[in-house]
Amino acid sequence: FHIGEREEKCIIEDLPSDTLVVGNYKVQRWDIHKHDFLESAPGLGMFVTVSTPSGEVLLSKLYGSQGTFSFTSYLSGEHIICFQSNSTRLLAIAGSKLRIHLDIRVGEHFFDESAVQAKEKVDEVNVRLEHLIEQIQHVSKEQDYEREREEKFRKTSEETNSNILWWAIAQTLILICVGIWQIKSLRDFFIAKKLV
């Protein structure tokens, strides 16, 4: 995605609780002379801020022009991930655009291949099996989270339907009462005028 040099851009990730999130990014700056995005200057960096659904700041850190950030969600819900450059240029001349290449991986537990090769005792099949088990646990957490959301939505729908039913019953009773009152009023009117 593209952002201005002094602009803040946020994305929302809907995450279950206890989920590892790893993000890799790379920033490129627009070159006016070459009309292309080039590698950014060494001094340019990015502030990465992550907020929980309750508004608590989970991560706030300055990284370089490319980097990796990670955090673990402890609440389920929409987490807000914001990016802003550390540019100190004035707003008037800071009109250049930045391109951010972002890769966010949710729920994956990465293992270091070089560390695996260094440990001769560890069997590669066991490592792959552990990785698959972690992925299964992540899928299970995702399903539990979706089940919770569906249950909350169903409960809200049932409450709404119940409220609509009671409102319809109240309207019907009011109409019946108004009809009876009108009939009684007309009857009394005709009796008073001696038309009946």
Give the termini separation: 82 Å
CATH architecture of the largest domain: Sandwich
User: Can you tell me the overall shape?
Assistant: elongated
Class derived from helix and strand content: alpha+beta
Keywords: Coiled coil, Endoplasmic reticulum, Membrane, Signal, Transmembrane, Transmembrane helix
InterPro entries: Emp24-like, GOLD_dom
Membrane topology: Single-pass type I membrane protein
Protein name: TMD11 protein
What does this structure look like?
Strands 1, 3, 4, 7 and 9 form a 5-stranded antiparallel beta sheet that branches. Strands 2-8-5-6 form a 4-stranded antiparallel beta sheet, with no helix packed on it. The protein is of the alpha+beta class and 196 residues long. The radius of gyration is 31 Å and the shape is elongated. The protein folds into 2 domains: 2-108, Jelly Rolls (Sandwich), CATH 2.60.120; 127-169. The model has no long low-confidence stretch (mean pLDDT 82). Helix content is 38%, strand content 35%. It has helices spanning 113-118, 124-192; strands spanning 2-4, 8-15, 19-31, 36-39, 46-51, 57-63, 66-73, 77-85, 97-106. It is built from 2 helices and 9 strands; from the N terminus they run E-E-E-E-E-E-E-E-E-H-H.
The gist of it:
Belongs to the EMP24/GP25L family. This protein is an alpha+beta fold and 196 residues long.
